[in-house]
Amino acid sequence: MQNSNNLPNDPEELKKLLLEAQKENHKLSKKNLSHVTVIHNQKKEIDLKVKKLADQESLIIRLNEMLSNLRRSHMGVKSEKTDLKDYYENGLFNEAELGLHDEATLYEDHAEEIEIKSHTRRSQGRKKLPENLERKEEIHDISEEEKICNCGCPLEHIGNEESEQLVIIPANVYVKKHIRSKYACKNCKGDEREEKVVITAPFKTPQLIPRSNLSPETLSFLLISKFMDHIPFYRLSEMLLRLQIQLPRGTMSNWIIGVYERYKGILGFLKDFLHDGKLIGIDETPFKVHNEKDRKDTTTSYMWVLRGGPPERTVVIYIYRQTRSADFLKDYLNGFNGVIQSDGLETYNTHFKNNPDIILAGCMAHARRKFEEVFKNSKDEVSEKTLYWMQKLYIIEDKIRKHDYLKKGMVEKIVEIRQMESKPILENLKNYLLEKKPTIPVNFGSGRAIRYFLNEYPKLIKYLDNGYIFIDNNLVENSVRPFALGRKNWLFSGVPEGAEASAFYYSLLQTFKANNLNAMNATLKFFQNLPSFQSTEDVKELFGKIMGWG
User: Phi and psi for 386 in degrees, rounded to 5?
Assistant: First the structure.
């Protein structure tokens, strides 16, 4: 840069120097702009890498969570129960800290006074054999010579020492031989009759499948074995072979599908009982079905489970569908006015949110389970405190259940208890999680659990205002479990017709079970009488009599 004393006096020279300076400045500006662009691009690249790194870190944490959950599900304790003392003795909080928001009027004033026993002791010794079993006595005595004392006097009988043994005899299998009398006129050989020449006596009761050797007893045995005891047909075939009975699994499958296909037009009666209640719990589980039209055998289908009806008339219905969409339920539940309780699957909102006759209720167990997974993996304090409050909610529900308020029709009492005891807990829990939400990543850990809880919160609190709604959907999940256990053994359904038949048989048997009936006896009565009926109303009446519903 030139000193002002060295500048020329000639204006032309000054112009020349000025132009050169401007050119230099322009070059420097371009260079600086280039550097700024490079820095900006580098910063952008760094931001992308930081975001990618953060995403990868989140993914690693999430995968570790999934791995821990998978290990626990396969090798750990399956129960979701957690002793309350875990939360305040061994955890990050003590009882005083966890109860900071407890108000005296919330728990003490409304608490029920009960007598606490010092401890409970289990009875010692083996459990008694059921009284309803037939007793066959076997007398054990000493010889006549031993009944004479050494002094020569006869011994007197002073009592007996009794013990019992359980005797199990393999299945009683026999062949029922139907002998149908035939008549003909030997005089005219039928020439004088307008009817048939030979008259054969009909069966006393119609057969399940004409010209088949399937009896109601055998069908009931097969259904209980497959759909309640989860025994695949190939194992049943092997078991029967030990009794020298050759019954291929293909024959069993044809029988079960054949009976359903023959009578399926009159087997839709369970839906009527379902609609009679005020609450329907719904869940679904994956299901592999082969030979579906235009679908690969590896494609996943679903078995939907609906549980409802009045409190004393519970029905459980299984429905096979190819997708996880609840669209079909709009027609199936058409005319139902009440509550649908489910997990947070979006398809329920999509198809029922704007239905004025339907109230959607959530499942607290699903929300709790997400915090439970986090707590077991990391002892996270937010999850721990949330589980503590949820434990209080379940203690309240346990008290309601023990008083049988629902079976007694005292739904107002249930609402009263929940409003006074459960509602403040849920409001405190919601406020606590809203406070913690901004400080926790939302994509994993307790952040995901908080997001689910808060999103579902409007549905989770529906049970506070309605005594017919349960705190969770566990009763439906318990109905899914038998199907899941069976699926582990038979893996898939070979044809769609088999899947539909399985859905009906599961519905029938689990409804018997839910109402504490002997499933074998009830199933036998149902199929002994089914061939005699021609309409759904007749079958519905038969089913009602078997259930004791009048």
Answer: -60, -45
> Residue 279 belongs to what H/E stretch?
strand 279-288
CB 528 within 8 A of CB 205: yes
480/487 Cα distance (integer angstroms): 11
Tell me the three state secondary structure of residue 321. Answer: strand
Tokens of 387: 């589980």
In a domain, 486, yes or no: no
Q: How far apart are CA 185 and CA 173, in angstroms?
A: 39
Is residue 376 pLDDT above 90, yes or no?
Answer: no
Round the average pLDDT of the chain to a whole number and report it: 83
Residue 383, domain member (yes or no): yes
> Is 372 among the domain residues?
yes
Domain that holds residue 384: 364-472
Count the Cβ atoms, other than its own, within 10 Å of residue 329: 22
426's CB contacts (< 8 A; 6+ apart) are 393, 460, 461, 464
End-to-end CA distance of the chain: 111
Q: For residues 49 and 291, what is the distance between their CA atoms, to the nearest angstrom?
A: 47
Count each helix (H run) and each strand (E run) in the chain, helices first. Answer: 19, 7
- CA 215/CA 61 separation, integer angstroms: 58
In this structure, the strands spanning 279-288 and 338-341 are parallel
The pLDDT score that the predictor gives to residue 94 is 46
Distance of CA 37 to the CA centre of its chain: 58
Position 426 confidence tier, pLDDT thresholds 50, 70, 90: very high
Provide the percentage of residues in the chain whose pLDDT is more than 70. Answer: 85
Our count of domains for the chain comes to 1
Q: Looking at beta carbons, which pairs linking 447-452 to residues 24 or more positions away fall under 8 Å?
A: 448/370, 449/367, 449/370, 449/371, 449/373, 449/374, 449/383, 449/386, 450/382, 452/344, 452/366, 452/367, 452/370
The answer as to whether 136 is a domain residue is no
Q: Are strands 338-341 and 358-361 parallel, antiparallel or unpaired?
A: parallel
